[in-house]
């Protein structure tokens, strides 16, 4: 499983990930998926190492997924909970991180409501030559790389269960529907999916997907060992039906209730009427189309309950399952960087 | 320790437990009690398996007991905490459970303030052939089977320390005093104790023990391999003294302060005067009488402080200790069902 | 590592610690520091034992430090969280402690906002011959022995990295600056540092260091095998500059914001102007002077940011690192008392 081509100490965003990076993650996750199917599901890969979960923004689902991944790798885990912490006593976030560093932390998994916090901590950790690796578990509306990577693994493993490979995504049409503007999940998925050669179609009302949105993705792609796509194939739609035509994967994003109070949406019902995924609307997609959602789902809003529960259509449980193997892969890869 | 006679994947209530089920639990708990007396207190029984504590209703005591039981069985543990969870974001309870299933959970320990939630989750887990076992750790006023089973173990181990057996309960008189109406502990104990041949006497003011209370327990008992008592020996008292006569065990229930604001009780002091267990009132009991309480105790309300602290009389610490061994037994038994 | 001279089952305060006790802690911590530098950082010393963290006063930093120490010793850990606990249901603190005892706890680490709580629990645990050891992790304004012991280790390891010894503290000048009156850290450090032969200088405005403060430390020192200093060398200052002259170590204490609302201080800025540690003010100290702080720090109040971040001057990260080794030593020592 050792991969000499991996040299990233931190995973903060997918902006500069190369196709080779993605493929390394897929292969490593696939080998951990195999470990998880055994009776003894543990490997001693990170024995004696300390992984600290710094979740400044509370989360049960993502924290549990990382916690289980860390346990499967035999690491020791410390959980920082902001509720009862030194932050309330005036300590800076950097000092909190340095305290956990001084205790012996090797890897930090960081979630924060403000974009950029994991990057700032990573820069400081490098500046002082700490040797600590940082994994961004979601920062504001910026990035959620482990989610996009587990989504990538889920899609590639759906296309080829035995040997998930990014090449299978070439030319596939992926539709992302929902609150694109405020979604770190969408942003990270746009970087990964376009870099792997998929065609990405974004769908939302204009309040959640303004015209200028694509600007951020127009910078030149950095080169890896494989030549990346010359131009990202990324499209914007303000109506659902035309976007869904011939789609291979439809990813619905979570709609946050506060978008209503911000007057960005009239009502959940109105949203569902125009952008909710229903069985009927899937008619125009490829016959093999699959539905995805990062969770937690508002049933009957982003998609109907019967789609969510249809094992032929919904990849939602597989996304969660892939999450553990993918996060094991990420912790393993950055944990091995000297 | 393997028991081929056990076939329950879930433990949701004790209504349909057979004497043979109870005896299997007792024997398994006794063997784990022996494990806990060794220097190395762990067994690899559930190594690699994931036990998730879904405690929608917060609890420190019961969660700690289950957590220690799971650690002793070498399982990996995930703790779901409702405070910072997806539930606040509109996710359904079933979707929360399915998320933990998809992560790789093998057993779920569920507590919820609403009766029936663990049953609904168990039904869904069976419907989708998940193979997951559910253990009800307390649901509303419905059931708290692990508490009643640890109480059963405590009584039988008091009657015969070396080989706890349900037969020793035959004809024993057990008095349950307190807020019967709202108590899931009382309900589960009534099923187990009457099924094992004990005589159960319920005592409370009429507001906490209405006339119709017994109706729920009048359904025919399902038959197991041993013939169950033809009629449950279950009695209601509205006065304490006559009930205590010749009692073998007196179990006081926790009185919740909100019963006062609901006008079901005049005051804690008035309650203690009529229904509080005191040394004087125990005069009429058997000389070997023992006191029990599921905890946490309001000292001076349900029972006097000196009784609580009298190691000759109080089984309260033994109940807590038996809790770990009994919960190990339950997790082990349902974890072994294919 | 076994030390036959250690006989304390509890560590509640340092008042009666002998020089030999301190030296045993230093030696044991030094050997665990060596363990922590290995690739496999665990020892099986407390395998099968249960350590319960009873943190009635919430704390993330200290709890994490104890948790990691316990994991490194291979103990099982239970965490009691007051937020969702039986305390809210009217249970007494002693009953909470006894519940965890009955579950199988061997060692309890206790923090409480009221002085004396760990002592009361320890007395009860001894009275009932529980065999449980209690470690005070901070009680009100009374004591925080593990902090003072990690401070002692940090100083002695700074003076001689290879073989930390209390003799190196003989005649050293240590200045403690800040909210002395309300600080359990200051109290515990005064006992340890004066007992080891250091000269301790306390500095604060009179509202935070009243004249009578020294009274508490004037009782005769109990004798150990080495003759302790006949008189504690302990001095009070109400001005910073004269105190700092020729200082070897300057320990700044955390200033709590509520001291302002209590009218004990005009403002943070005024405090910093008179008592804040700055590079300029360190001119009068020994050239080898080091800065310490128990954390969390209010940068720019107790000390300037640049001092905090100067690895030549600040021992703050080393204090945190020493904390894990020192707490391993304390748990190991009291865990070995029969």
Protein architecture, described:
Chains A, B, C: It catalyses: carbamoyl phosphate + L-aspartate = N-carbamoyl-L-aspartate + phosphate + H(+). Chains A, B, C: This is Aspartate carbamoyltransferase. 3 copies of one chain form a homotrimer. With 338 residues, chain A is α/β, with parallel strands linked by helices. Chain A folds into 2 domains: 141 residues, Rossmann fold; 171 residues, Aspartate/ornithine carbamoyltransferase (Rossmann fold). Helices cover 36% and strands 13% of the residues of chain A. Chain A contains 11 helices and 9 strands. In chain A, the strands form 2 sheets. Chain A has a 5-stranded parallel β-sheet with strand order 7-6-5-8-9. In chain A, strand 5, helix 6 and strand 6 form a beta-alpha-beta unit. In chain A, helix 1 packs across helix 5, helix 1 packs across helix 11 and helix 3 crosses helix 4. The longest helix of chain A has 20 residues. Chain A is globular, with a radius of gyration of 20 Å. The two termini of chain A are 16 Å apart. The mean pLDDT of chain A is 92. At the B-C interface, helix 2 and helix 11 of B face strand 2 and helix 3 of C.
């Amino acid at each position: 499983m050792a991969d000499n081509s991996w040299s990233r100490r931190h995973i903060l965003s997918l902006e500069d990930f190369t196709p080779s990076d993605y493929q390394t993650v897929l292969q490593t996750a696939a080998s951990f998926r195999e470990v998880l199917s055994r009776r003894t599901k543990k490997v001693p890969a990170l024995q004696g190492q300390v992984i600290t979960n710094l979740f400044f923004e509370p989360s049960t689902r993502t924290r549990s997924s990382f916690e289980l991944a860390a346990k499967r790798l035999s690491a020791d885990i410390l959980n920082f909970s902001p509720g009862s912490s030194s932050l309330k006593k005036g300590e800076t976030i950097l000092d909190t991180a340095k305290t956990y560093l001084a205790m012996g932390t090797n890897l930090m998994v960081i979630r924060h409501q403000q974009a950029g916090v994991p990057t700032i901590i990573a820069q400081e950790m490098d500046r002082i030559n700490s040797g600590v690796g940082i994994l961004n578990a979601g920062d504001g509306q910026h990035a959620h790389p482990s989610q996009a990577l587990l989504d990538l693994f889920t899609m590639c493993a759906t296309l080829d269960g035995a040997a998930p490979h990014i090449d299978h995504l070439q030319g596939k049409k992926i539709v992302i529907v929902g609150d694109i503007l405020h979604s770190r999940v969408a942003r990270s998925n746009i970087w990964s999916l376009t870099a792997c050669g998929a065609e990405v179609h974004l769908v939302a009302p204009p309040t959640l997907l303004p015209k200028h949105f694509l600007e951020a993705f127009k910078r030149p792609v950095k080169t890896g060992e494989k030549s990346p796509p010359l131009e990202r194939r990324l499209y914007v739609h303000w109506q659902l039906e035309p976007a869904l035509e011939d789609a291979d994967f439809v990813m619905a994003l979570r709609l946050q209730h506060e978008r209503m109070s911000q007057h960005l949406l009239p009502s959940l019902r109105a949203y569902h009427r125009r952008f909710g995924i229903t069985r009927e609307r899937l008619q125009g997609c490829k016959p093999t189309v699959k539905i995805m959602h990062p969770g937690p789902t508002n049933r009957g809003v982003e998609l109907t309950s019967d789609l969510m529960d249809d094992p032929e259509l919904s990849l939602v449980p597989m996304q969660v399952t892939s999450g553990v193997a993918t996060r094991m892969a990420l912790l393993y890869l950055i944990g091995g960087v000297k």
